[in-house]
Fold this sequence. Notes:
Blueprint: H1 14-26, H2 31-43, H3 50-63, H4 67-77, H5 83-96, H6 102-113, H7 120-133, H8 136-149, H9 155-168, H10 171-180, H11 186-199, H12 202-211, H13 217-229, H14 233-242, H15 248-260, H16 264-276, H17 283-296, H18 299-311, H19 319-331, H20 335-344, H21 350-362, H22 366-378, H23 385-398, H24 401-415, H25 421-433, H26 437-445, H27 453-466, H28 469-482, H29 487-499, H30 503-515, E1 524-529, E2 532-537, H31 546-564
Antiparallel strand pairs: 1-2
Amino acid sequence: MQLKPVPLQLNSRTGEIVGEIFESLKKCASMKLLKQVHAPIITSGLHHENYLSVKLLSLSTKVLANIDYARKIFDCSMGTANVFLWTAMITAYSRNQSQATVEAILIYKKMQRHMIEPNSYTLSSVLKACSILSAVQEGNQIHVHALKLGLNTNIYVQTTLMDMYAKFGCIEAAVHLFETSCERNLVMCNAMIMCYGKAGNVEAAREIFDKMTQRDSISWTSMISSYTNHGNMQAAQELFDQMCLRDVSCWNALIRGYAHSGDGERALLLFNEMKLENVEPNQVTMAVIISVCGCIGALEKGKQIHEYIKDCSGMEMNIYMFNALIDMYAKCGSLDDAYRVFCEMPYKDVVTYNAMILGFAKHGHAEDSLKLFSELLVGGLKPDAVTLLGILTACSHAGLLGMGNEWFSCMTRDYKIEPSVDHYACMVDLLGRAGFIEEAYQLIKTMKLEPHAGVWGALLRACKTCCNIEIGEIAARKLFIVEPENPANYVLLSNIYARSNRWDDVAKVRHWMSKRGIAKASGYSWIEVDKLVHKFLAGDTSHPQYRHIHATLKNLSLQLILDYGIIGIG
């Protein structure tokens, strides 16, 4: 559609011109058309009219999703901008939900310097931005400003404040606002369910949910998420089953819950049920399901979902989906596919690099990990704690002790990143793999942080490899305190004793396990066949094709003996 510029004659009345402009703006379905209408507004001098600028700005962001053009409109009109135009720009950034959201707070501060008094909508929008960015200090300051202006009791401001404090995890502040509110609306109740759920007070969240006379999808989703966040999948499923109308958010909450609780198979089944009920998955759904495929090693299913996304005309790949794909392919061992996705990405953040660096690292490609790290720095991105963990993992898996020591030393010096317990665990693993057991133990003793099971576990595994009984016993005793129910720690210590022919000590460890009711966890493996993941436990005979599988293994074993004299699986 070619839109003709609005004819602006000197003898035309301004009201008529503005009317024509508004009619033309209604037809704008692209940036090209918007610019055609905008041009005569500028040439006629009407670009300083706030109501026109607000309309142009809103159209740029709400309909055409062009925040940069909206900012140009705002900057050109800033000298004469009223509270409505300032608010429109702040609102546009607060809706953006990206790194650009910080601009909402910066514009609010600039608005104060221009002595423009905000209204309730301004405050609601900038508080939403604080919530998205977890900007606690700025949120508190704006709350104080609202109090000074007497707008703190406004229902919109109060609701946004509650939602903000709920997302910050500031329970007392959110509860105080809720209890002192004259009017408790739906959004307030939803915010409190979310707030209590985040704090672990699921009973209080459920009490509010049960008392609500009106509920929307957010109410149900928040309550389901409260249960899933604390591992109560049964209650979450029961609540989900009570729903008459389930939108994509509710499905996402339950799918994410099963994924985080380690039940990837159930998460995949739910995803299939969701499609059967004609609920279209969104970008959040896809990112979670892709991650599930990575966790359970379902490479073919992951590839199938990747193709499904490509075929969905209405779904654009966002950075979370790209990052999830890289992580999934890397976890499934398909590094070529992971790197292909990495190279296809139009924009990469530090999480993208972290996923690829860790992928290369865990598969022993230290050189590729280090190359990507250099690329990250050249691209102007700032490495974080996860990036450095990936580099240390790369050094550990490749046995690069000297390089690992150097990277560990430069974390604080060059990148101002304090080593976490996970970084120490990686260094203990690196030293242990190289046979430096004493040095690994000394490193643990210098830690300012409390070592977790990962640190002592790395040391115990190294002691088993090098048969170091003395330090192995120290590591095992620590693990028996930190995670007393984990059978692997007892088995590792028992194996260390067995390698040294200390059979009495082996018997003691077995006795401890028996006395505490700890049984060795059954080992299992899985394989994906025809898009189904089959799980096999040691000694398990429950698989429906068990007899056929076992017969095939026997035949293979016999063939090995006949052909090569190798004794296989009997």
